[in-house]
UniProtKB/TrEMBL annotation:
Involved pathway(s): One-carbon metabolism; methanogenesis from methylamine
Organism whose genome encodes this protein: Methanolobus tindarius DSM 2278
Protein name, as recorded: [methylamine--corrinoid protein] Co-methyltransferase
UniProt catalytic activity: Co(I)-[methylamine-specific corrinoid protein] + methylamine + H(+) = methyl-Co(III)-[methylamine-specific corrinoid protein] + NH4(+)
UniProt GO BP: methylation
Single annotated GO MF: monomethylamine methyltransferase activity
Broad class of enzyme this protein falls into: transferase
Length: 457
């Protein structure tokens, strides 16, 4: 708690600054640092192989966090982060175990081109989910052996009523959603499977309501959402609560390329590193998840996003001991070739660049309900396993081929089909993907395996 108290004092009595001023400072400083450290985006590259540039991005991220600080929205003041605190945090970490019983998973430390895959967490990862399909969508991921945890979505109704954020109805919805997530693990014969979230909550009280042995236990990483080098009292309160109760928690951030703070892929890569450092130094989270998206498409699968994310991952995995994850926000809907292509391109890059955990994927940018399924998570895990055979250059060449198959559709992606039209659901104990869906999954899988370097598969 000592560091949080130290930074709370800054939040109360630190330098005054408006949020607009902070955004401008972050934007300008990140662009200056890109020039200072020689970080340059190449639009032909998806998976950078320049390890020295990865290290440079990491150094730039340290300087960005130290020089700009963290803006506290609750007080309109700046939390200064000492460089010494950043450096002390780089090589200190606790082993991370998630899940319980026979579903316990030790999250491995990973670095570029390591021979074992990241941990696979299925589910909508905060995307919209209908009340009637909530249990089934979670079950579809529980059924997949490659899935090692569930990151559920936001239930959009309760009792048929749309949920007004920050209302008592939300608390009931969060309870129902969490109970259905846990029920899915029991029905699927995988009780103890790690839960991550909850995603329905906007109230701090809603999140803490389900923090219990029954629902989100100390072994289930609980969500603490943060913003672009910003924080507020509710976020800090959640961190204090989880630390006091010995909970694992995951800090999630979704920086927007083309938003007020980020104007270039280079700036995004530096921001990715700075936010990761913020999560470890200020929030003391067990794991940090980035879900950067492009302002024009709302996707995490655009080439600028993948380049920046992969470069940041190279720098982070080589220079600090910390667990990182990535959200997949695809533009296409499920049961489309583009959804599979978007997932493959990201999973291959994240795996070879050292991410510890992959989350999702969620289709239709998470905004349309029920565009997530266990089959998509299975595919994500299989693409990650495939990528463990590749070096950075081989991964870049493969991702380039995959990206060419959907690049011209990012602004007009196929809508696909909602979950209930992609699975045959006879009961919660008897459901599987439709033949059409399975045929498409097999087709894309074989196509990508055929593009692998070396002998044809």
């Amino acid at each position: 708690m000592q560091n949080i108290y130290k930074y709370l004092k800054y939040a109360i009595g630190g330098e005054k600054r408006t949020e607009r001023e902070h955004d401008i400072m972050v934007f300008k400083k990140s662009e200056e640092l890109a020039l200072k450290y020689g970080i340059e985006y190449d639009p032909k590259v998806f998976v950078p192989d320049d390890l020295e540039m990865g290290d440079a991005v990491f150094e730039a991220g340290i300087e960005l966090l130290h020089s700009v600080g963290i803006f506290c929205r609750s007080t309109q003041r700046v939390i200064n982060i000492d460089e010494e605190d950043i450096l002390k945090a780089l090589n200190t970490t606790n082993p991370l175990e998630i899940g319980r019983l026979k579903e316990k998973v030790v999250v491995p430390h990973r670095y570029p081109m390591i021979s074992f895959p990241p941990v696979i967490i299925g589910g909508p990862t905060g995307g919209s989910v209908s009340e009637q399909n909530f249990l089934y969508i979670n079950l579809s991921s529980v059924q997949e052996n490659v899935v090692q945890g569930i990151y559920s979505g936001a239930m959009n109704q309760f009792g048929g009523e749309y949920i007004q954020p920050r209302s008592p109805l939300e608390m009931l919805a969060v309870l129902k959603a969490s109970r259905n997530e846990r029920l899915a693990t029991k029905i699927g014969g995988r009780e103890g499977l790690a839960l991550m979230g909850p995603s329905t909550s906007t109230l701090t009280t809603s999140s803490l309501l389900v923090s219990s042995d029954e629902l989100y236990s100390t072994c289930d990483p609980q969500e603490v959402y943060m913003d672009d080098l910003k924080v507020d009292y509710e976020t800090l309160s959640k961190c204090i609560y989880h630390q006091e109760h010995g909970n694992h928690y995951i800090t999630g951030q979704v920086p927007v390329f083309g938003g007020p703070c980020i104007g270039s892929p280079e700036g995004l890569a530096i921001m990715d590193v700075a936010e990761t450092l913020q999560s470890k130094v200020l929030a003391h989270s067990s794991i940090h998840a980035c879900g950067a998206v492009h302002a024009n498409t709302g996707s995490s699968s655009a080439k600028e996003i993948m380049w920046a994310s992969n470069l940041a991952s190279l720098g982070i995995s080589r220079n600090m001991n910390y667990y990182t994850a990535r959200y997949y926000w695809n533009t296409a809907g499920i049961c489309t070739d583009m959804m599979f292509y978007e997932t493959a391109a990201q999973a291959i890059g994240d795996t070879v660049c050292g991410r510890n955990m992959l989350l999702g994927p969620s289709g239709r940018r998470g905004s349309a309900p029920d565009h997530s399924s266990g089959l998509e998570s299975r595919f994500m895990g299989e693409m990650a396993q495939l990528a463990t055979q590749l070096n950075l250059t081989e991964a870049n060449n493969l991702v380039s081929k995959i990206y060419s198959k959907y690049a011209n559709r990012l602004n007009n992606p196929p809508e696909g089909k909602p979950f209930e039209k992609c699975y045959n659901i006879r009961s919660e104990y008897d459901m599987e993907p439709t033949e059409e869906y399975l045929a498409l999954y097999r087709k894309i899988s074989y196509e990508i395996m055929g593009d692998m370097p070396g002998e044809p598969v």
